[in-house]
Amino acid sequence: MILEKLNTARLHNLESGQFLTRFFTDFESTGLQANTDIEFEAIYTDLQNQLPTYLAALAQISAKEESEQLLSLDAIRDRKIGALRMAWKVFQNTDNPAKMAAYEKLTVIMNAYKSLASENYEAETLGINNLLATLQLPENFAAVQLLNMEEHLTALQNANALFEAKFSARSSNSISTETYDTKMLRKNIFATYNELCNYVWAMAKRRNTIPFFGTVLTSINNGRAYFANIIATRKGIAQNKATKEKPTDEQ
């Protein structure tokens, strides 16, 4: 009877929530009842009661991270809008008649979308898509090409696509106004989890004639082994990367 080794401190925040959720899923899949053992049930119930608050804290972290990522991606596309406008604006005083005609042709379009960067996320996305579609119309694209704006058009299109992809995949969880001490919640819930694991392990060794503890230990070990492998793989990738990047004295 062994308890699979797992350094829970190395679990990322999202992983820690998945790990604890899996514990309950694995236990329920055994068909066993927590009240089979009074001590086990007490610790199990304590862990179960802590989980919703911990998951809510993790959801809040995830939502904040997503908001920060969206803010960053939006700032990138705002800069691309600015670059596109500068590429167009530079020809406002050109002496080349053809380029002046192209500049004037695009002026109506560019001015119609001059406030894009100040719009809300949805409105800005729609506006950028409309601007790109309009500039890519055959009757306008010749002017875009003449003013060498294609590169900036593509850059804006790519930046907007990245933002759209992230915005569409964002979590549906709203950021709660309640503030969580995630570090303390994690410390407490894993202290309870470790207490439960050690109790099951001890009872499985001392009372190995009772199937309950052996079965629970097996379900616990399944989850621990799975996440230990994730950590090991991640560590291995990091070590390989560090080895490749390490300078050598070879000429």
Which helices and strands, and how do they pair?
Blueprint: H1 13-29, H2 38-89, H3 97-112, H4 121-135, H5 138-146, H6 150-168, H7 182-206, H8 211-245
Helix pairs in contact: 1-2, 1-8, 2-6, 2-7, 3-5, 4-6, 7-8
Write the element-wise H/E pattern from the N-terminal end onward.
HHHHHHHH
Main sheet properties: none
Uncertain residue ranges: none
Strand content: under 5%
Helix content: over 70%
Distance between the termini: 53 Å
Shape, principal axes of CA atoms: rod-shaped
**Number of separate helices:** 8
Q: Which structural class is indicated by helix and strand composition?
A: mainly alpha
Oligomer: single chain
Estimate the mean pLDDT confidence.
Answer: 89
Describe, in short, the structure shown:
The protein has 251 residues and is an all-alpha fold.
Account of the protein in words:
α1 packs antiparallel against α2, α1 packs antiparallel against α8 and α2 packs antiparallel against α6. The chain is mostly helical. The model has no long low-confidence stretch (mean pLDDT 89). 75% of the residues lie in helices and 0% in strands. It is built from eight helices and no strands. It starts with 12 loop residues before the first helix and ends in a 6-residue tail after the last helix. The radius of gyration is 29 Å and the shape is rod-shaped.
Question: Could you list some keywords that capture this structure?
Answer:
rod-shaped; single chain; mainly alpha; 251 residues
